[in-house]
Design a protein that fits this description.
single chain; five-stranded mixed β-sheet; about 450 residues; alpha/beta
């Protein structure tokens, strides 16, 4: 099933229809749907689709040669004598529009150190004159950004387009489970992190509990060892990265806290975190308007599937191995889902604000905020703040994912915290709720006039 990616697909089609040389760099984390997107795009197009493997240059050239011969309608195990000879053949096939896909390009670049220089030469001399469309695809984020797109790369400046493929947002994720309720769709999004491969696993004819047991809490489940497997594929010291991810998943968000909980030096933790950020597993977050203040920097897991796994799978292996997953879900997971979904609901609200067309002003910056209250001497937090400095306007948001309707005190507390923001002439408020709102807060919102209440069903 092909879901979403309409924007990316339209852009690839636009580039294809130019009938001129195109060199597209397409990259993103594993399981995010890059190959699926490319396969959809290349339907009914003359294509050489080559996927590099973790082997030597000779083996990769053999496989590349086989894909070229397949397009020519020839069944042959013979290989071209060199990469240059293979690219010469590609040039000969490109009299008519041809799409050349090199998937898992980092494997090829590691096997053949000169491949980027060879490609550079052909892009500059031969390929730029013919109707060839090349798509280089890779899952190693750091490699693609530094060794392909980076200034030091031989390929720097040759690309005509680049696409970083991200996990789906909650609205796109909902399309994978159309028969679920809105709350079940939100949970599915949270548990999968919006990753297409994981979304495809969830069966909306089953309950959330049954899907979790089947995929997370069973030794044969696809997601039972998924984070560990991903770390082993990408990193040299998975044990230390595991410690850091577990600490963050369970609430450590500052560098010192992470160092203390893992027993690792802060300098080492910083290096490990940078690697995890490059993989899209973690993210660095600064309080909105405080981008340059390192003291206002927190670290969070960008992939909520990792949060779920490190909270509820790691450490519960005995219950899973002994087929006690049913009681494990009931005792450890079911009652904690609102807590798990809290930060994820904030992300959903941020996505909603990014696409909403009826906001009181155009938001230029959006993020969480935290800081000290000089009056009460306490630390205050606001779930989301959207600002427009030029208009001196700010939108303060509270996001509540809980079973009960939101009451007036939540709005009053938000208004009080907004008083800490001086210099903003126009202040607006928005409260998001999974379970609706009491009559009292609805009346208070009407009386104030600058308050909007948003229910879960309005967000889809």
């Amino acid at each position: 099933m092909f879901v979403g990616r309409e924007k990316e697909l339209l852009e690839l089609e636009r580039l294809y229809k130019t009938k001129t040389f195109q060199f597209v760099i397409l990259y993103g984390r594993r399981r995010v749907g890059k190959s699926t997107l490319i396969t959809q795009f290349t339907q009914n197009k003359q294509t050489v689709y080559f996927t590099a493997v973790e082997s030597d240059s000779k083996r990769n050239l053999e496989l590349f040669s086989r894909m070229i011969m397949k397009l020519r309608g020839v069944q042959s195990e013979a290989a071209f004598s060199s990469w240059e000879s293979a690219f010469d053949e590609i040039a000969g096939l490109s009299k008519k529009r041809l799409v050349l896909i090199i998937d898992e390009y980092p494997y090829l670049a590691q096997a053949e150190r000169s491949i980027s220089s060879i490609l550079q030469h052909y892009c500059d001399t031969v390929f730029s004159k013919i109707p060839l469309m090349i798509i280089l695809c890779g899952s190693s984020m750091s490699f693609m950004e530094n060794q392909v797109l980076g200034y030091q790369s031989p390929l720097y400046g040759r690309r005509t387009a680049q696409m970083k493929i991200e996990p789906f947002g909650y609205r796109e994720a909902a399309a994978f489970v159309p028969n679920y309720t809105l709350e079940q769709k939100a949970l599915t999004y949270g548990m999968t992190g919006g990753t297409p491969k994981y979304l495809e696993l969830f069966d909306d004819s089953l309950s959330i509990k049954d899907n979790v047991i089947k995929h997370f809490l069973t030794t044969t489940g696809y997601l039972y060892e998924e984070p560990s497997n991903l770390l082993k594929q990408e990193l040299r010291e998975p044990v230390k990265y595991n410690l850091i991810i577990e600490a963050v998943a369970k609430g450590a968000t500052r560098m010192n806290d992470i160092s203390t909980k893992t027993g690792l030096e802060s300098s080492a933790v910083s290096n490990y975190i940078n690697a995890l950020i490059s993989l899209g597993i973690m993210q660095r977050e600064t309080a909105v308007t405080e981008e340059k203040n390192k003291r206002k920097t927190l670290y969070r897991l960008a992939d909520s599937m990792f949060i779920f796994w490190y909270r509820y799978v790691l450490g519960n292996e005995f219950s899973i191995v002994t087929s006690d997953a049913d009681s494990l879900y009931d005792s450890e997971i079911a009652g904690n889902l609102n807590h798990f979904m809290g930060p994820i609901f904030e992300r959903m609200c941020a996505e909603y604000l990014g696409k909403a067309e009826t906001l009181p002003f155009k938001i230029r910056q959006l993020g969480r905020w935290w800081g000290s209250n000089p009056v009460t001497k306490t630390e205050e937090e606001i779930d989301l703040v959207g600002i427009n400095e030029k208009l001196a306007s700010a939108l303060f948001c509270e996001c509540k994912y809980r079973n009960q309707p939101v009451e007036v005190p939540v709005l009053n507390a938000l208004v009080e915290k907004a008083e800490l923001w001086q210099g903003y002439k126009h202040k607006y408020f928005m409260v998001f709720s999974r379970s609706g709102f009491s009559k009292e807060i609805q009346a208070a919102a009407r009386d104030r006039g600058n308050v909007r209440l948003v229910k879960l069903e309005e967000m889809y």
